[in-house]
Write a structure and sequence with these properties.
2 helices, 22% strand
Length: 112
């Protein structure tokens, strides 16, 4: 029986991005040794989208109020891209300390 999923974020500064997930987003974690943190995630879902090539994966966090979350992050000097209306939801991207971006959206679609 499948009982979960493990998601990997590749980063040029993994320690800074781990700190972001822990201290800014407030995700609970366990230290599995030598400061290597594994984070709990909120309820999640998965979708399969058509693509030219298989093998790509994306990670988006979801919020019931994307504007409030952007405001909360702004207080901590965390940059977010302008909100885009995608039809299926309102999307922004959060700048990670390691140089990457993490998608954040307020869904308009039904949730499982």
């Amino acid at each position: 029986m499948i009982n979960g999923a493990h998601i990997i974020i590749h980063s040029r500064d993994a320690e800074a991005d781990r700190g972001f997930l822990k201290d800014v987003l407030g995700f609970k974690s366990v230290d599995v040794g030598d400061g290597w943190l594994i984070f709990a995630l909120p309820e999640s879902e998965v979708a399969v989208h058509p693509a030219q090539a298989s093998g790509g994966h994306e990670l988006y966090l979801m919020s019931s109020d994307v504007e409030a979350e952007i405001a909360r992050l702004k207080v901590r000097n965390i940059a977010c891209d302008p909100i885009e209306d995608m039809g299926w939801g309102r999307l922004t991207r959060i700048a990670l300390p390691g140089g990457g971006k993490l998608g954040l959206y307020q869904p308009r679609h039904a949730r499982p």
